[in-house]
Amino acid sequence: MRLSEIFTSIEGEGVFFGTKTMFVRLAGCPLKCHWCDTPYAIPMDSGYAHTIDEVKEMISCELQENTYKVNFTGGEPLAQHEAVIELAKFVRKKGVKTYLESACYDSARFAKVLPYIDICKIEFKMKDARAVVDDKYYNNLLKNELECLKIATEAGKMPYIKVVVTNSTDVDEFSALVKEVFRVASPKNIAGFIIQPSHKTDEPVLERLFAFYDAVYPFYDQVRVVPQLHKIIGAR
Ligand code: SF4
């Protein structure tokens, strides 16, 4: 497998922000979001080649007391889904929760990994993320993201939803996405809906954040606008 890095920090995103978390960052991502904050982990040949056993050893050495969860992140963890399965089994045996932080670009791979994951986030990319090259690929990405949401809720995983917004994110597109999300998932089957403002790239002004919030609230009144905590406190 190709590994970018392993480290322990404070979770800075989503509904589990503030928890002591080990990050296992796999190298390589098929998407290319223009605001990506880990561009060094995008190339498929980035990071270092390791055997699974070597990475298990690294996880054992890094694991601190009172770690709440281990995040499999990237890059894109589903690009190396078989490695994630093996490592997630290993982490669970140590009595620590597993967390999948994926862009949900491949629902078939997501379904294979999910049984070994305790907590998952379903991320939706808006078109202004420029994650894929054109509308054809964007529609396929959206289809996979919605399918991952369906698979996770039907499995009773209580996923939470995250959408990164910039000042250029189209409010109508966002509203249409919200309708699709709640067509697929019932509010009682999700653990949160996080609107995450972009950081230092086309940051959304307050009026736009209100517009995004107002699009979700009628469907789900537990919606939250949550910036990335780790960047505010200077953690990795
Ligand atoms: S999916 Fe994640 S890792 Fe891949 S380019 Fe987008 S933000 Fe970066």
TrEMBL record:
Protein's gene: queE
Residues that hold substrate according to the record: I10, E11, G12, R25, T73
Main function: Catalyzes the complex heterocyclic radical-mediated conversion of 6-carboxy-5,6,7,8-tetrahydropterin (CPH4) to 7-carboxy-7-deazaguanine (CDG), a step common to the biosynthetic pathways of all 7-deazapurine-containing compounds.
Domain Radical SAM core residue range list: 16-236
InterPro entries: 7-CO-7-deazaguanine_synth-like, Aldolase_TIM, rSAM, rSAM_sf
Annotated [4Fe-4S] cluster binding sites: C29, C33, C36
Record's keyword terms, sorted: 4Fe-4S, Iron, Iron-sulfur, Lyase, Magnesium, Metal-binding, S-adenosyl-L-methionine
Residues that bind S-adenosyl-L-methionine: W35, C36, D37, G75
Catalysed reactions, as listed in the record: 6-carboxy-5,6,7,8-tetrahydropterin + H(+) = 7-carboxy-7-carbaguanine + NH4(+)
Pfam families, sorted: Fer4_12
Biochemical pathway: Purine metabolism; 7-cyano-7-deazaguanine biosynthesis
Sequence similarity: Belongs to the radical SAM superfamily. 7-carboxy-7-deazaguanine synthase family.
Listed GO MF terms: 4 iron, 4 sulfur cluster binding; carbon-nitrogen lyase activity; magnesium ion binding; S-adenosyl-L-methionine binding
Iron listed as a keyword: yes
Cofactor: [4Fe-4S] cluster; Mg(2+); S-adenosyl-L-methionine
SUPFAM superfamilies noted in UniProt: Radical SAM enzymes
Subunit organization: Homodimer.
EC number, UniProt record: 4.3.99.3
Protein's name according to its UniProt entry: 7-carboxy-7-deazaguanine synthase
Record-listed Mg(2+) binding positions: T38
Cofactor note: Binds 1 [4Fe-4S] cluster. The cluster is coordinated with 3 cysteines and an exchangeable S-adenosyl-L-methionine. Binds 1 S-adenosyl-L-methionine per subunit.
Source species of the chain: Nitrososphaera viennensis
